[in-house]
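Researcher: We're teaching a course module on how sequence relates to structure. For the next exercise, students receive a sequence and then see the predicted structure as C-alpha coordinates, so they can try to spot secondary structure elements on their own. Here is the exercise chain.
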Amino acid sequence: MNFKTIAILFIICLMILNTGQINAQTNDYGNSLNSYSFDLYREIKVEKKNLFLSPLSTYYALLVVYEGSKNTTKQEFEKVLYLKNSDSLKNAYLHNLASKSDSCSGFKVSNAIWLDKSLQVEGVYRMSVSDKYFTDFKRTEFAKTESAVSDINGWVSEKTNRRINEIVSAANLNSNTKLLISNAVYFKGEWLNKFEKQKTISATFFTSVENQYKVDFMNMTERLQYFENEEYQFISKPYRDSDLSFCIILPKKLFGIEEIEKKMNNDFFKKILDSIYYTKTSLSIPKLKLESSYELSDALKKAGLKSAFTSEADFSGITKETPLMLDQVLHKAWIDLDEEKTETAAAVVVVISITGLPSYKVFKADHPFVFFVIDNRSRAIIFMGRYFEPDQGEKIVEDKESLTYNLEIRNKEKFAVGNDNKETLFVVDKKIISQAELGTINPEDIESVNIYKDKKEINKYSPRNYDGVVVITLKKKENKKK
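Model: And here is the predicted structure for the students to work with:
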Protein backbone atom coordinates (compact mmCIF):
# COMPACT_ATOMS: atom_id res chain seq x y z
CA MET A 1 0.00 0.00 0.00
CA ASN A 2 1.36 3.43 -0.94
CA PHE A 3 1.30 5.62 2.15
CA LYS A 4 1.56 9.37 1.82
CA THR A 5 3.22 11.28 4.60
CA ILE A 6 2.12 14.13 6.82
CA ALA A 7 5.06 16.39 7.49
CA ILE A 8 4.32 18.21 10.73
CA LEU A 9 6.22 21.44 11.05
CA PHE A 10 6.49 23.25 14.37
CA ILE A 11 7.75 26.80 14.32
CA ILE A 12 8.23 28.90 17.39
CA CYS A 13 9.86 32.23 18.01
CA LEU A 14 10.15 34.04 21.32
CA MET A 15 11.71 37.48 21.43
CA ILE A 16 11.85 39.34 24.73
CA LEU A 17 13.51 42.70 24.24
CA ASN A 18 12.70 45.04 27.13
CA THR A 19 11.44 43.19 28.76
CA GLY A 20 -0.08 39.64 37.63
CA GLN A 21 -0.27 37.39 39.78
CA ILE A 22 -0.32 33.66 39.11
CA ASN A 23 -3.81 32.62 40.04
CA ALA A 24 -4.62 29.40 41.82
CA GLN A 25 -7.12 28.59 39.09
CA THR A 26 -6.20 26.01 36.49
CA ASN A 27 -8.01 23.73 34.06
CA ASP A 28 -7.71 20.31 32.50
CA TYR A 29 -6.23 21.79 29.35
CA GLY A 30 -3.44 23.48 31.29
CA ASN A 31 -2.76 20.29 33.25
CA SER A 32 -2.68 18.24 30.04
CA LEU A 33 -0.32 20.66 28.30
CA ASN A 34 2.06 20.86 31.28
CA SER A 35 2.17 17.08 31.76
CA TYR A 36 3.02 16.72 28.08
CA SER A 37 5.58 19.55 28.40
CA PHE A 38 7.64 17.83 31.08
CA ASP A 39 7.54 14.51 29.18
CA LEU A 40 8.87 16.19 26.04
CA TYR A 41 11.51 18.08 28.01
CA ARG A 42 12.86 14.83 29.44
CA GLU A 43 12.94 13.11 26.06
CA ILE A 44 14.92 15.81 24.23
CA LYS A 45 17.18 16.97 27.08
CA VAL A 46 20.85 16.35 26.45
CA GLU A 47 23.22 16.27 29.43
CA LYS A 48 25.26 19.44 29.90
CA LYS A 49 23.56 21.23 27.00
CA ASN A 50 21.20 24.17 26.66
CA LEU A 51 17.59 23.54 25.69
CA PHE A 52 14.74 25.73 24.48
CA LEU A 53 11.33 24.78 23.09
CA SER A 54 7.68 25.73 23.03
CA PRO A 55 5.43 22.99 24.42
CA LEU A 56 2.42 25.11 23.43
CA SER A 57 3.48 25.25 19.78
CA THR A 58 4.13 21.52 19.50
CA TYR A 59 0.96 20.70 21.44
CA TYR A 60 -1.18 22.83 19.12
CA ALA A 61 0.24 21.14 16.03
CA LEU A 62 -0.29 17.66 17.48
CA LEU A 63 -3.87 18.55 18.39
CA VAL A 64 -4.53 19.44 14.76
CA VAL A 65 -3.31 15.97 13.73
CA TYR A 66 -5.16 14.30 16.60
CA GLU A 67 -8.49 15.65 15.34
CA GLY A 68 -8.15 13.39 12.29
CA SER A 69 -6.88 10.26 14.04
CA LYS A 70 -8.90 7.11 14.69
CA ASN A 71 -8.73 3.87 16.71
CA THR A 72 -5.28 2.89 18.08
CA THR A 73 -3.62 5.99 16.67
CA LYS A 74 -6.15 8.19 18.45
CA GLN A 75 -5.61 6.35 21.74
CA GLU A 76 -1.86 6.91 21.48
CA PHE A 77 -2.39 10.64 20.90
CA GLU A 78 -4.65 10.82 23.96
CA LYS A 79 -2.00 9.11 26.08
CA VAL A 80 0.83 11.38 24.90
CA LEU A 81 -1.28 14.57 25.07
CA TYR A 82 -2.99 13.59 28.36
CA LEU A 83 -6.47 13.87 26.84
CA LYS A 84 -9.74 12.03 27.30
CA ASN A 85 -11.15 13.62 24.16
CA SER A 86 -10.89 16.99 22.49
CA ASP A 87 -14.54 18.01 22.95
CA SER A 88 -13.83 19.48 26.38
CA LEU A 89 -11.11 21.68 24.89
CA LYS A 90 -13.45 23.71 22.73
CA ASN A 91 -14.20 26.36 25.33
CA ALA A 92 -10.94 26.13 27.26
CA TYR A 93 -8.78 29.18 27.72
CA LEU A 94 -5.91 27.96 25.57
CA HIS A 95 -8.31 27.16 22.75
CA ASN A 96 -9.13 30.86 22.72
CA LEU A 97 -5.48 31.87 22.65
CA ALA A 98 -5.37 31.59 18.88
CA SER A 99 -8.32 33.94 18.45
CA LYS A 100 -7.34 36.35 21.22
CA SER A 101 -3.58 36.40 20.80
CA ASP A 102 -3.61 39.61 18.75
CA SER A 103 -5.26 41.44 21.65
CA CYS A 104 -2.56 40.22 24.07
CA SER A 105 0.30 42.67 23.68
CA GLY A 106 3.16 41.18 21.68
CA PHE A 107 1.77 37.63 21.71
CA LYS A 108 0.61 35.79 18.61
CA VAL A 109 -0.37 32.18 17.82
CA SER A 110 -0.80 31.08 14.20
CA ASN A 111 -1.80 27.72 12.69
CA ALA A 112 -1.88 26.53 9.09
CA ILE A 113 -2.40 23.27 7.20
CA TRP A 114 -0.66 23.06 3.84
CA LEU A 115 -2.46 20.77 1.41
CA ASP A 116 -1.14 19.44 -1.84
CA LYS A 117 -3.36 20.58 -4.69
CA SER A 118 -4.23 16.94 -5.40
CA LEU A 119 -5.50 16.19 -1.86
CA GLN A 120 -9.01 16.76 -0.48
CA VAL A 121 -9.71 16.61 3.26
CA GLU A 122 -12.92 15.63 5.03
CA GLY A 123 -15.37 18.48 5.59
CA VAL A 124 -15.90 17.50 9.25
CA TYR A 125 -12.16 17.64 9.88
CA ARG A 126 -11.82 21.02 8.17
CA MET A 127 -14.61 22.49 10.30
CA SER A 128 -13.26 20.96 13.50
CA VAL A 129 -9.71 22.33 13.31
CA SER A 130 -10.90 25.68 11.96
CA ASP A 131 -13.40 26.08 14.80
CA LYS A 132 -11.21 24.83 17.66
CA TYR A 133 -7.77 26.09 16.66
CA PHE A 134 -8.48 28.81 14.08
CA THR A 135 -6.39 26.94 11.52
CA ASP A 136 -5.98 28.31 8.01
CA PHE A 137 -5.94 25.93 5.03
CA LYS A 138 -3.41 26.71 2.30
CA ARG A 139 -2.64 25.05 -1.03
CA THR A 140 0.79 24.31 -2.48
CA GLU A 141 2.42 21.79 -4.82
CA PHE A 142 4.85 19.61 -2.93
CA ALA A 143 6.09 18.10 -6.20
CA LYS A 144 7.41 21.56 -7.02
CA THR A 145 9.71 21.44 -4.03
CA GLU A 146 11.34 24.84 -4.43
CA SER A 147 7.99 26.58 -4.68
CA ALA A 148 6.54 24.70 -1.68
CA VAL A 149 9.59 25.51 0.47
CA SER A 150 9.30 29.17 -0.47
CA ASP A 151 5.57 29.26 0.42
CA ILE A 152 6.05 27.66 3.83
CA ASN A 153 9.15 29.60 4.85
CA GLY A 154 7.49 32.82 3.74
CA TRP A 155 4.54 32.11 6.06
CA VAL A 156 6.92 31.30 8.91
CA SER A 157 8.89 34.50 8.38
CA GLU A 158 5.74 36.61 8.37
CA LYS A 159 4.25 35.03 11.50
CA THR A 160 7.49 35.32 13.48
CA ASN A 161 8.14 38.95 12.56
CA ARG A 162 11.08 37.92 10.32
CA ARG A 163 12.90 36.28 13.24
CA ILE A 164 12.79 32.78 11.72
CA ASN A 165 13.16 32.90 7.97
CA GLU A 166 13.97 29.29 7.18
CA ILE A 167 12.80 26.14 8.88
CA VAL A 168 12.00 23.74 6.07
CA SER A 169 14.23 22.82 3.14
CA ALA A 170 13.95 20.61 0.07
CA ALA A 171 15.42 17.76 2.14
CA ASN A 172 12.31 17.75 4.35
CA LEU A 173 9.89 17.20 1.46
CA ASN A 174 9.50 14.40 -1.07
CA SER A 175 7.07 13.16 -3.69
CA ASN A 176 4.95 11.42 -1.03
CA THR A 177 4.43 14.57 1.05
CA LYS A 178 0.81 15.63 0.67
CA LEU A 179 0.08 17.55 3.85
CA LEU A 180 2.08 19.73 6.21
CA ILE A 181 0.93 21.29 9.49
CA SER A 182 2.62 24.41 10.81
CA ASN A 183 2.29 26.39 14.02
CA ALA A 184 4.04 29.59 15.00
CA VAL A 185 4.07 31.23 18.41
CA TYR A 186 5.65 34.67 18.61
CA PHE A 187 6.11 36.78 21.72
CA LYS A 188 7.76 40.14 22.26
CA GLY A 189 7.18 41.22 25.83
CA GLU A 190 8.26 44.18 27.88
CA TRP A 191 8.99 43.69 31.56
CA LEU A 192 6.46 45.19 33.96
CA ASN A 193 9.51 46.56 35.79
CA LYS A 194 12.49 47.01 33.49
CA PHE A 195 16.10 46.43 34.34
CA GLU A 196 18.28 49.54 34.30
CA LYS A 197 21.06 49.41 31.73
CA GLN A 198 23.72 50.88 34.01
CA LYS A 199 23.23 48.05 36.49
CA THR A 200 24.05 45.35 33.95
CA ILE A 201 27.48 43.99 34.89
CA SER A 202 29.89 41.28 33.86
CA ALA A 203 30.10 38.46 36.40
CA THR A 204 30.89 34.76 36.62
CA PHE A 205 28.52 32.01 35.47
CA PHE A 206 29.47 28.61 36.94
CA THR A 207 28.77 25.74 34.52
CA SER A 208 31.16 23.39 36.34
CA VAL A 209 34.36 23.61 38.38
CA GLU A 210 36.44 23.65 35.19
CA ASN A 211 34.04 25.74 33.09
CA GLN A 212 33.41 29.27 34.32
CA TYR A 213 32.35 32.17 32.08
CA LYS A 214 32.12 35.94 32.19
CA VAL A 215 28.61 36.94 31.09
CA ASP A 216 26.39 40.00 31.37
CA PHE A 217 24.02 39.91 34.36
CA MET A 218 20.96 42.15 34.69
CA ASN A 219 20.34 43.31 38.27
CA MET A 220 17.48 44.87 40.18
CA THR A 221 15.62 44.67 43.48
CA GLU A 222 11.81 44.41 43.36
CA ARG A 223 8.86 42.61 44.91
CA LEU A 224 8.37 39.33 43.06
CA GLN A 225 6.43 36.13 43.51
CA TYR A 226 8.91 33.83 45.20
CA PHE A 227 9.28 30.38 46.73
CA GLU A 228 12.15 28.39 48.14
CA ASN A 229 12.86 25.18 49.98
CA GLU A 230 16.06 23.36 50.89
CA GLU A 231 16.66 22.35 47.24
CA TYR A 232 15.79 25.30 45.01
CA GLN A 233 14.49 28.86 44.61
CA PHE A 234 11.68 29.99 42.29
CA ILE A 235 10.77 33.46 41.01
CA SER A 236 8.11 34.77 38.64
CA LYS A 237 8.71 38.11 36.90
CA PRO A 238 5.66 39.49 35.01
CA TYR A 239 5.43 41.18 31.63
CA ARG A 240 3.56 44.39 30.95
CA ASP A 241 0.11 44.32 29.31
CA SER A 242 -0.22 40.54 29.26
CA ASP A 243 -1.00 37.56 31.47
CA LEU A 244 2.45 36.06 30.90
CA SER A 245 5.39 35.78 33.30
CA PHE A 246 9.00 34.64 33.09
CA CYS A 247 9.85 32.02 35.74
CA ILE A 248 13.07 30.37 36.90
CA ILE A 249 13.72 27.28 39.01
CA LEU A 250 17.23 27.76 40.41
CA PRO A 251 18.92 24.88 42.27
CA LYS A 252 20.58 25.91 45.53
CA LYS A 253 23.43 23.56 44.70
CA LEU A 254 25.62 25.16 42.06
CA PHE A 255 25.56 21.98 39.99
CA GLY A 256 22.25 20.53 41.13
CA ILE A 257 20.10 21.06 38.02
CA GLU A 258 19.79 17.38 37.12
CA GLU A 259 18.54 16.47 40.60
CA ILE A 260 15.75 19.03 40.19
CA GLU A 261 14.96 17.91 36.63
CA LYS A 262 14.32 14.35 37.81
CA LYS A 263 11.49 15.65 40.01
CA MET A 264 9.89 17.97 37.46
CA ASN A 265 6.34 17.07 36.45
CA ASN A 266 2.93 18.72 36.48
CA ASP A 267 2.30 18.03 40.19
CA PHE A 268 5.75 19.36 41.10
CA PHE A 269 5.06 22.57 39.16
CA LYS A 270 1.57 23.00 40.64
CA LYS A 271 2.91 22.72 44.20
CA ILE A 272 5.39 25.50 43.50
CA LEU A 273 2.71 27.79 42.07
CA ASP A 274 0.45 27.03 45.03
CA SER A 275 3.22 28.05 47.44
CA ILE A 276 4.55 31.31 46.00
CA TYR A 277 4.30 34.60 47.83
CA TYR A 278 5.40 38.19 47.24
CA THR A 279 8.69 39.29 48.76
CA LYS A 280 11.45 41.79 48.11
CA THR A 281 14.02 40.07 45.90
CA SER A 282 17.51 41.01 44.80
CA LEU A 283 17.40 39.55 41.30
CA SER A 284 20.44 38.84 39.14
CA ILE A 285 19.89 36.92 35.89
CA PRO A 286 22.07 36.58 32.79
CA LYS A 287 21.16 38.08 29.48
CA LEU A 288 20.58 35.06 27.29
CA LYS A 289 20.20 34.37 23.62
CA LEU A 290 19.44 30.83 22.51
CA GLU A 291 18.46 29.23 19.22
CA SER A 292 17.54 25.57 18.91
CA SER A 293 16.34 23.14 16.24
CA TYR A 294 14.89 19.70 16.88
CA GLU A 295 13.51 16.76 14.95
CA LEU A 296 11.03 15.38 17.48
CA SER A 297 9.95 12.10 15.89
CA ASP A 298 12.07 9.88 18.14
CA ALA A 299 11.07 11.81 21.27
CA LEU A 300 7.37 11.42 20.47
CA LYS A 301 7.77 7.73 19.70
CA LYS A 302 9.45 7.19 23.07
CA ALA A 303 6.62 9.11 24.73
CA GLY A 304 4.12 6.63 23.24
CA LEU A 305 3.18 7.97 19.80
CA LYS A 306 4.26 4.87 17.86
CA SER A 307 1.71 3.76 15.26
CA ALA A 308 1.34 7.30 13.89
CA PHE A 309 4.80 6.99 12.27
CA THR A 310 4.09 3.60 10.67
CA SER A 311 1.86 2.09 8.01
CA GLU A 312 -0.53 1.15 10.85
CA ALA A 313 -1.45 4.83 11.30
CA ASP A 314 -5.12 5.70 11.02
CA PHE A 315 -5.75 9.29 9.92
CA SER A 316 -8.95 8.50 8.06
CA GLY A 317 -10.57 11.43 9.83
CA ILE A 318 -8.38 13.76 7.75
CA THR A 319 -8.95 12.12 4.39
CA LYS A 320 -10.22 8.82 3.04
CA GLU A 321 -8.59 9.32 -0.34
CA THR A 322 -5.27 7.78 0.65
CA PRO A 323 -3.66 6.36 3.81
CA LEU A 324 -1.50 8.82 5.74
CA MET A 325 1.31 8.51 8.27
CA LEU A 326 3.52 10.97 10.10
CA ASP A 327 6.95 11.64 8.65
CA GLN A 328 8.88 14.40 10.39
CA VAL A 329 8.26 16.68 13.34
CA LEU A 330 10.43 19.80 13.05
CA HIS A 331 10.71 22.41 15.78
CA LYS A 332 12.77 25.58 15.88
CA ALA A 333 12.94 28.03 18.76
CA TRP A 334 14.68 31.34 19.38
CA ILE A 335 14.88 33.56 22.46
CA ASP A 336 16.61 36.88 23.16
CA LEU A 337 16.33 38.00 26.77
CA ASP A 338 17.71 41.36 27.85
CA GLU A 339 16.86 44.70 29.44
CA GLU A 340 17.01 46.55 26.09
CA LYS A 341 20.36 46.70 24.40
CA THR A 342 23.10 47.48 26.86
CA GLU A 343 26.74 48.48 27.19
CA THR A 344 28.67 46.14 29.45
CA ALA A 345 30.58 47.18 32.55
CA ALA A 346 33.41 45.11 33.98
CA ALA A 347 32.59 44.53 37.64
CA VAL A 348 31.70 41.81 40.12
CA VAL A 349 28.44 41.30 42.01
CA VAL A 350 29.10 41.68 45.71
CA VAL A 351 26.80 40.68 48.57
CA ILE A 352 27.82 42.46 51.78
CA SER A 353 26.18 40.95 54.85
CA ILE A 354 26.08 43.34 57.80
CA THR A 355 23.68 43.99 60.65
CA GLY A 356 21.02 46.48 59.67
CA LEU A 357 20.56 45.65 55.98
CA PRO A 358 16.98 45.73 54.68
CA SER A 359 15.43 42.28 54.31
CA TYR A 360 15.33 40.68 50.89
CA LYS A 361 15.84 37.37 49.16
CA VAL A 362 18.95 36.94 47.01
CA PHE A 363 18.18 35.23 43.69
CA LYS A 364 21.43 34.93 41.79
CA ALA A 365 21.08 32.80 38.64
CA ASP A 366 24.80 32.30 38.11
CA HIS A 367 24.67 28.54 37.55
CA PRO A 368 22.53 26.16 35.42
CA PHE A 369 18.77 26.67 35.80
CA VAL A 370 15.41 25.82 34.24
CA PHE A 371 13.21 28.63 32.91
CA PHE A 372 9.64 29.06 31.67
CA VAL A 373 7.25 31.55 30.15
CA ILE A 374 3.81 30.70 31.53
CA ASP A 375 0.27 31.96 31.20
CA ASN A 376 -0.78 33.11 34.66
CA ARG A 377 -4.50 32.41 34.29
CA SER A 378 -4.25 28.80 33.12
CA ARG A 379 -0.72 28.15 34.45
CA ALA A 380 0.05 26.64 31.05
CA ILE A 381 3.69 26.43 29.95
CA ILE A 382 4.16 28.33 26.69
CA PHE A 383 7.98 28.16 26.55
CA MET A 384 10.50 26.24 28.61
CA GLY A 385 14.21 25.59 28.58
CA ARG A 386 17.41 25.01 30.48
CA TYR A 387 20.31 27.46 30.55
CA PHE A 388 23.37 25.32 31.14
CA GLU A 389 26.29 26.93 29.35
CA PRO A 390 26.54 30.49 27.98
CA ASP A 391 26.81 30.63 24.19
CA GLN A 392 27.95 34.25 24.30
CA GLY A 393 30.11 34.22 27.43
CA GLU A 394 33.88 34.52 27.61
CA LYS A 395 35.44 31.45 29.19
CA ILE A 396 37.61 32.18 32.22
CA VAL A 397 41.07 30.73 31.67
CA GLU A 398 42.68 30.19 35.05
CA ASP A 399 44.52 27.41 36.84
CA LYS A 400 42.46 24.81 38.68
CA GLU A 401 43.36 26.24 42.08
CA SER A 402 41.97 29.65 41.13
CA LEU A 403 38.78 28.15 39.72
CA THR A 404 38.28 26.16 42.91
CA TYR A 405 38.82 29.31 44.98
CA ASN A 406 36.14 31.11 42.93
CA LEU A 407 33.70 28.36 43.86
CA GLU A 408 34.61 28.53 47.53
CA ILE A 409 33.83 32.25 47.58
CA ARG A 410 30.55 31.69 45.73
CA ASN A 411 29.42 28.98 48.13
CA LYS A 412 29.68 31.38 51.08
CA GLU A 413 27.01 33.67 49.67
CA LYS A 414 23.57 33.70 51.29
CA PHE A 415 20.05 33.38 49.88
CA ALA A 416 18.60 36.02 52.19
CA VAL A 417 19.88 39.16 53.87
CA GLY A 418 18.77 41.18 56.92
CA ASN A 419 15.38 41.25 58.58
CA ASP A 420 12.10 42.99 57.89
CA ASN A 421 12.43 45.67 60.60
CA LYS A 422 15.65 47.40 59.60
CA GLU A 423 16.51 49.97 56.93
CA THR A 424 20.04 51.06 56.14
CA LEU A 425 21.46 54.03 54.23
CA PHE A 426 24.41 53.43 51.88
CA VAL A 427 26.91 56.19 51.09
CA VAL A 428 29.81 55.79 48.65
CA ASP A 429 32.29 58.66 48.36
CA LYS A 430 29.72 61.01 49.98
CA LYS A 431 27.03 60.00 47.49
CA ILE A 432 23.88 58.10 48.58
CA ILE A 433 23.34 54.94 46.53
CA SER A 434 20.73 52.17 46.37
CA GLN A 435 21.07 48.57 47.56
CA ALA A 436 21.26 47.39 43.94
CA GLU A 437 24.06 49.87 43.15
CA LEU A 438 25.97 48.58 46.17
CA GLY A 439 26.04 45.16 44.50
CA THR A 440 27.93 46.56 41.50
CA ILE A 441 30.99 47.67 43.49
CA ASN A 442 34.18 45.67 43.05
CA PRO A 443 35.49 44.85 46.56
CA GLU A 444 39.05 45.43 45.34
CA ASP A 445 38.12 49.09 44.73
CA ILE A 446 37.11 49.69 48.38
CA GLU A 447 39.49 51.67 50.58
CA SER A 448 37.41 51.52 53.78
CA VAL A 449 33.95 50.63 55.16
CA ASN A 450 32.49 52.31 58.26
CA ILE A 451 29.15 51.46 59.88
CA TYR A 452 27.37 54.02 62.09
CA LYS A 453 24.20 53.59 64.12
CA ASP A 454 24.44 56.85 66.02
CA LYS A 455 21.61 59.23 65.10
CA LYS A 456 23.94 62.21 64.74
CA GLU A 457 26.13 60.37 62.27
CA ILE A 458 23.10 59.25 60.24
CA ASN A 459 21.74 62.82 60.12
CA LYS A 460 24.96 63.99 58.46
CA TYR A 461 23.77 62.18 55.36
CA SER A 462 19.96 62.15 55.61
CA PRO A 463 17.21 63.45 57.91
CA ARG A 464 15.19 60.26 57.34
CA ASN A 465 14.78 57.74 60.14
CA TYR A 466 17.38 55.11 59.12
CA ASP A 467 18.61 52.42 61.53
CA GLY A 468 22.18 52.80 60.34
CA VAL A 469 24.49 54.14 57.66
CA VAL A 470 27.23 52.30 55.77
CA VAL A 471 29.91 54.71 54.58
CA ILE A 472 32.23 53.36 51.89
CA THR A 473 35.32 55.12 50.60
CA LEU A 474 36.72 53.98 47.27
CA LYS A 475 40.39 53.89 46.37
CA LYS A 476 41.73 56.74 44.31
CA LYS A 477 42.89 55.97 40.78
CA GLU A 478 46.58 56.03 41.61
CA ASN A 479 46.02 53.59 44.50
CA LYS A 480 44.07 51.24 42.26
CA LYS A 481 47.03 51.03 39.88
CA LYS A 482 49.35 50.12 42.75
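Model: If you want an answer key for the exercise: Residues 10-26, 340-358 have pLDDT under 50 and may be disordered. The longest strand covers residues 212-228.
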